[in-house]
Amino acid sequence: MQLEDMLFPECTLVHVKADRKEDVIWRLYEKLLQNGRIKESFYDAVLEREKEYPTGLKFEEWEVAIPHVSPEHVLASTVAIAVLDEPIEFKRMDDDSFVHVKVVFNIALGKDGKQIEILQDIMAIFSNSEKMERIVNAESPEEVISIIKG
Q: Matching Pfam families, A to Z (predicted)?
């Protein structure tokens, strides 16, 4: 399964307003649950994992987060995306500091998913400044997906 096969407009949000990471993770959880992609246990599992293994990343121009969980909380592999109007704080995965994130890729990877390949694809997007700029300025879920696939 490729990243492109895991993107759905109904699980992609733009112009998200959130005060903290729990809010944006909840919004993505609701979309994933409404669309039959995850189990109800997903939200709590993401927050628990985030406490132990934070997912904030700092790239040259962008700060992003990739919260995710193990496959037992997933029904169908999906990457839910939130593009925020204002950054929110996530703890970095590589040290004890924080990043201010504008884009969240919430990975719901089932047993059929190839985690290393999906993460590599996502990292390639994050390291492409032009693509990230276009994602941050996208006006619709369809536009976000088109940018990623393009």
A: PTS_EIIA_2
